[in-house]
Amino acid sequence: MIYFMSMKFVKNILFFVLFLVLGFSFNAHHAFATDKYWVGGGSSANWGATSPTNWALTSGGANNAAVPTSSDNVFFDANSGSGTSIISLTTQSVKSLDMTGYTGTLDQNSKTLQVTLNNVNNINSVIKLSSAMTYIVGSGSTAKIQVSGGSGCATQPCSVSLTTAGKIMPKLEVTLANLTQTLNLMDDFTSSSFGILMTGGILNTNNHNISSIFASFTYITGRPLTVNLGSSNWTITGGDATTNNNTSGTWTSNFDGVNAILNPGTSTIKFTDSTSDNKTICNYDAVNSLPYNAIFNNIWLSGSGTGSFVLNSCGTGPGAVFTFNDFKVDTPPHTISMPFGTTTVNTFTVAGTAGNLMTFTSDDPGITTFTLSKPSGIVSSDYLSLADSIATGGASWYAGGHSTNGGSNTGWVFESTPPTAAITYSINHAVKAGDTQRITATFSEAMVDSPAPKISISGANTVSATPMTKIDSTHYYYDYVVGTGNGTDTVALSVGTDLSSNVVTSSPTSGSTFTVDNTAPTNQNTVFASSASVSSGQVVYIASSGTASNSVWFAPSGTTSFSVSNAMTTVVGTDTAIASPVNPGTYKLFVIDIAGNISAESTATLTVNALRRSGGFTVFTPLTVNSSSVTPITETPSNTPVTTPQATTLTTSTITRNLKLNAKGDDVKALQAYFKLTPDGVFGPKTKQAVIKLQKAHNLTADGIVGAKTREVINKQ
Prior knowledge:
This protein is mainly β. It folds into 4 domains: 32-375; 421-516, Macroglobulin (MG2) domain (Immunoglobulin-like); 524-629, Immunoglobulin-like; 666-715, no CATH class. It has a 22-stranded mixed sheet that branches. The chain is elongated, with a radius of gyration of 48 Å.
């Protein structure tokens, strides 16, 4: 009996041990990840059917595997057929979902597809759709992809990589437990009827673009979160929010810089929709119950929607504080409701249009003010409607000439007077083709860089609206290469605005015209009508060119570049006497106008002979003398000897003091004798004129005063 009972006891023990082993094996099977492959066939099939006919343990294998659970890696691939897999469970959990190569259909059926990071085996999970597949989301707030996590990743990082393959996605809920759990976007994410909600973990956009009707980032105690936007463009589209358990067209956040962190990078958050719903961006430090300075990069309001754009503290506290790199609104009319906290910007790109003002208002109109701050520089806007605003921070704030001052504004400049400009030229006389005429516009006030002031030219030549080059905020120039026309060129300023967006007056206040002259003088044969033969340095009588701004030259035939030398002499265009060149040879007369046009050379020729002296020929420095005291020199036949009067020679002691108008004395008589004037000893107007002509001939200051340099020239003769 005892033996029997002992044997029975042993058997029971063995049976119990076997049960434990088998149970452990079963549980162990489910504790560790298993690969499950969809083999549901060519027709619609239930993902969650209790019968294991739709799943295999290998790609295209026998359909006898159990329905996947949160511990399984699920695969849809090229061996999964082209049918439809329909999710039937309210929440279908998997460890990972890879649909690479799948060409069938996944019908999420308005259910939740969940990836849970709850053990160390979930280090690198994926949700990866296929571009060749069909993805049906369904409708309602329950249609979502949920990435959640527990405490199992505390010892090492866990992540889920989401690849949408261009599919329209449902709502994305990220409810990770801590900063060891990450959701990585592997391509662009678009949820046209849903949004993104995050309550913990890390979101890495990896510089991919996002489009959703809302975004919500909520800090829950013990579940810190970080959002890394990089260079992403996040578009908040707005739309029907009734099925999303969130407000359409909103960015809601609890960033506090410690528990909830936004790293904006170079991202742009753009709000756009075509509805009448308000668009909202809000932030509030929920831990400390106070406004927190949420630093974003670029905020852009666009779209045809008529709703207001609201900045606030998420309706949970007083005021709100924001910092934006660029705050931009580009589709008026819009109403922007501002919190009574300070909104700091680096650039403020906001402007309405004629008849479509951009309205800025306090979130408590008439009661509180709002503050816009910019550290430095200039804000230039227009077509605004402003009230209850403070513009500060060191920058100059220009509301624009077409803006409305609704009252209680400080720091803004409201100014509607158009700027004017005066035009000056680098060449202050007539110009000719090929000249570079620098046209400088001096504006009455500072101008904006864009659009840059433009210049137009009409008349003798034409230049269409062309940007000018900035010297400083009130000075711009344009280097105009003169064309071939003749007559008057008129300058106009076709484009240009001041800091208040007032357009420049097109007609300059002064200097609006200049003359273009491309016609060379033709009277050279009138000025010098007959050939002549003279000695070096003697005077030749000519006719006036008729214009004082002309110059008259004796120069060698074929000369194109003129400068005073021993082979070239010159007088002003109205002079009637000119010294012959010093160097013996033959010369022609040229007339040059003020623009630099050169006449043809004269038909008549001037022959210059050297003065014969004992021992050879001596060439004297040319002297310009008073024409009234000299007999004109005419052409002398070659067979007639030339008698040349000798120049009066003075010793260095003849003139020893400075002489000027009204001076008297023997040295004045000597000076007059030098110039072959009546030696009355009184320095009168004729004597002064003779001195001036001498000074011009020797490139001295032509003041008519016999100073040291002029005495030196005279006493050497």
